TrEMBL record:
Organism the protein comes from: Pseudonocardia kunmingensis
GO MF terms, alphabetically ordered: hydrolase activity
Start and end residues of each Putative collagen-binding domain: 395-482
Entry-linked InterPro entries: Apiosidase-like_cat_dom, Collagen-bd_put, GH, Lysozyme-like_dom_sf, RPF
Family: Belongs to the transglycosylase family. Rpf subfamily.
Protein name: Collagenase-like protein with putative collagen-binding domain
Biased composition (Gly residues): 619-635
Amino acid sequence: MRRPSRSGVALPAVVVVVVVVAVAALTTVLRGPESARPAATWECAGSDDSAAVSGSVVGAGHEACTPGALAVDGRTFTRGGEPFFWLGDTAWSLFVNLTRAETEEYLDARAAQGFTVVQAAAVFPQAGGPGPNQYGDSPHGTGLDDLAVTPGDEGEEQYDYWDHVDFVVAQAAERGLVLAVLPVWADGQVGELLTEENAGAYGEFLGHRYGGAGNVVWVLGGDAPADGVEGVWQALADGIREGGGTQPATYHPRGDQTSVTWFDGDERIGFHMLQGGHCLRYDVRAELVAQTYAAGLPFVDGEPIYEDHPYCWRPADGYSTAQDVRRDAYWSVLGGAAGHTYGHHAVWQFLAGGRSPELHARGTWPEALRSPGAEQMQNVRALAESRPRVEPAAVVADPGEGAGRIQAAVAADGSTLMAYTAAGREVALDPGVLSGTTLQPWWFDPRTGDAVRLDPVENSGPATFTPPAGEGDEADWVLVVDDAAAGFGAPGAGRLPGRDAPASDRTGASGRDLDDPDAGFGPGDGGEEGGERGGTDEDRDRGDEDGGGDGGGDDDGGDRAGGRDAREDAGEDGRSDDSRGADERGGGSADETGDESAGDADDRKGGGEEGSAEEGGAEEGGAGEGGAEGGGSDGGESERAPAEQEAPAPAAADAAVWERLAACESSGDWGIDTGNGYYGGLQFSDATWKDYGGTEFAPQAHLATREEQILVATRVRDDRGGYGSWPACASRLGLPRWSW
């Protein structure tokens, strides 16, 4: 994001990309500013590839463990040996503009929406200079060779800017999010704040402090070309490496540019990044994607057009829509990208009351978190994860150009083909590139994630497919054509072998695929892989009896929230010292929490121990306010993977099933058969299934009988005091997994 003219004022932004990493929390002690506040920790748990390391990961003298870090594998990413889809969000000012409580609110929302990466900046200059964070702390004094680091991290005097960065890294790790850190937002800063003389030492500081964090990757640059200053970035990258930061790195360029221009073949760069920018230059964008793909490394568009951004910074020309951000996403992914980054114009700057908008932004960041485009991004991830990787291919007879261009891609083994028709044009193609004699076509709706099955066709020559009717912003669709023998099931509804669940044709009534408890989410969101936001397994789940509490350690209610902001003083989401909150259901009133953003607990129920379907469904995911923002049964696009169906809209009878499912955690409504092998909406990670004796019945939960699942779920309930935030109960109706 860049001003068309800076007029001498540099736009800040240090990118911290939070990549979803399986939770293997670090054991580094991270204390808040209050001296009485016990340490929050990153625990090493649940990650087979975690390795203990000595020395500093987040501050000198701490010991930590390194979870499976992001790795490059050909044109794709892996984490812990598993395929990893980069679904990023631009949160450039995260370290500067949010309090701790607001940071957790933001991270909770993005994790629940299936994002795997958050991009933010470690040093984010504002109004022409480095601004302090929300606690009045600045990252440095006179320059980057004068970093503002104080010994210790307790109390007002010790807790500094970098201790707050530590806190954000820790909170991201708890939610399964990996941070890809831009050391400094480069626009206007290279040669002044960041120089070839200080870049190496600054990089070494960052590498020493965060090199052991498996949920960190590095993003050099920051809305700036590297012409003539490549040496500065190379020195910074070398310093990070020398300090112990061996995680992959990339470079964030200016709009209509790609890192390939300067760093093609540079071993310091592990993956490439382009910036599509905020103007509707469709053909330029296509060329940029093709140029970056040709370099042979994984790549992402790290800053496409933001949602609700004035076209080319001119409000008179209108503001971008959800369809604009969908178009960029599917064009990129089917153009060979290893994922995609989303952004909202009010979110990257965390616009709120009392803060002046940058570049004609409007609204507030809490409202923008649940904008249509943000809710719909999980669908591109779900689609990609339900099929083998596809590579761009010229198989469409008339792909066209401009806004209506059709982008197609084919799997290397010929098992599937995808074509995104941005303007709803019919797709004429020769499916001869596909294996098999019988083909199964589908239309995938990028707005809802639903899939419409078409009649099988013979692979005997050119074929034309006409998408379902749609007008304006509702006209785009993705054609998916499979080799019928592959048996993939509905697009977006199942994950491939090696991604936690075998491909299948089993989907819920009209919601997210329930075969995989992590479908559409990062590991921290299902509640079974350590994503319950801190504390031991027992502590994390005690706060979840209402389906909305997060758990947390036994000190969570007063510890993580103890800080300088009145909104944080009395604990997160109303949790008292035993993590249950004032009413023992994970939530409290605004008066009890002291958190102005928390609201009344009654407005945030998640179908808990005493909550009904009306409480959970209507308030959080029904036709009321919760439905609009939470994407509930009123048709909002929240947190759901596609469902196979014969028509674009789900059958009316399905709604009753999902209304009952909304209260399944607490009601024990075992009569619900979700149609995917689970009963009562309960799902188990492999670890939970094993830990509670499930493997005596079947290797995985979905292979067990209804009675066996009930028995294991009862053991979980008896041990933890609740069933936890089971995805099937919360996601379809937009019920909160956390007490926002």
